[in-house]
Amino acid sequence: MRRAIYPGTFDPITNGHLDLIKRALKLFDELVIAIAVDSSKTPTFSLNERKDMIEQCLQGVSNIRVMSFNGLLMDFAQEVKALAIIRGLRAVSDFESELQMALVNRKLYEEGETVFLTPKADYIYLSSSIVKELAKLGGCIDDMVEPYVKSKLEEKFQSLL
Ligand code: COA
User: Fold this and answer.
1) For residues 141 and 98, what is the distance between their CA atoms, to the nearest angstrom?
2) Residue 72 CA: which ligand 1 atom is closest?
3) Catalytic residue list contains 68
4) Which of the listed residues 21, 41, 71, 92 has the most CB atoms within 10 Å of its CB?
5) Count of domains for the chain
6) What pLDDT digit, counting tens, does each position of 22-49 carry?
7) Which member of 50, 90, 132, 152 is catalytic?
């Protein structure tokens, strides 16, 4: 069983994340989508809301598990017996911080490999913050998130008005 982890804040999950998940599933038998609880970010969506959106977007996709983790990613990787951590490299600007994170993570858990995947070119510019900003200001996000996520963003920002 070749298991990998795809970690992130997923606040919310975007089509860029979904693209990476589908690519990773071609390489591994099982993918654990790991939502970080301890993050330097203050998420807009609760942990349950983020988990629900991921599950709705991946309905019918087999070989995935959606979990959350506290503390260090590499402790969680050992706990779930993952061989690899999947990270997306969207642009050169991602490289430096990703390299640093991969090297620190290797120090913490030598056996865990970081595997970098390149998202589809259409999603290179995407981030969860950009999607939230557009949703808040009435911009079109139809090709950036699944319809379910769009409806949750609309609900969230309407309730905050
Ligand atoms: N498509 C679209 N957007 C993407 C993307 C993709 N393929 N890949 C990343 N992004 C976006 C994310 O949505 C996020 O957007 P935001 O900043 O607007 O929220 C941004 O790019 C950064 O994403 P990422 O680099 O994946 O960071 P993250 O905050 O989502 O996750 C953790 C970082 C949780 C994986 C990392 O902090 C961690 O492992 N924390 C645990 C603690 C730990 O072990 N620390 C030691 C590590 S050295």
Assistant:
1) 27
2) 44
3) no
4) 21
5) 1
6) 999 999 999 999 999 977 889 999 999 9
7) 90
Residues 118 and 90: their CA atoms lie apart, in Å, by 6
Amino acid 150: pLDDT: 97
Give domain status of residue 86, yes or no.
yes
Q: How far apart are the C-alpha atoms of 152 and 159, rounded to whole Å? A: 11
Residue that the structure tokens 């642009």 belong to: 91
Express each pLDDT in 81-91 by its tens digit.
Answer: 999 999 999 88
pLDDT of residue 40: 83
Q: Which of 13, 39, 70 to mutate to test the pocket of ligand 1 (most atoms within 8 A of CB)?
A: 39
Q: What domain range is 51 assigned to?
A: 3-124
Tell me, using a 6 A CB cutoff, whether residue 151 lines ligand 1.
no
Which residue in the list 17, 51, 87, 132 is annotated as catalytic? 17
Task: State the pLDDT confidence band at 161, using cuts at 50, 70 and 90.
Answer: low
CB distance 137 to 6 below 8 Å: no
The Cα 155–Cα 161 span in angstroms is 10
Instruction: Specify if 130 maps to a domain.
Output: no
CATH number, domain of 65, equals 3.40.50.620
Give the model's pLDDT for residue 38.
78
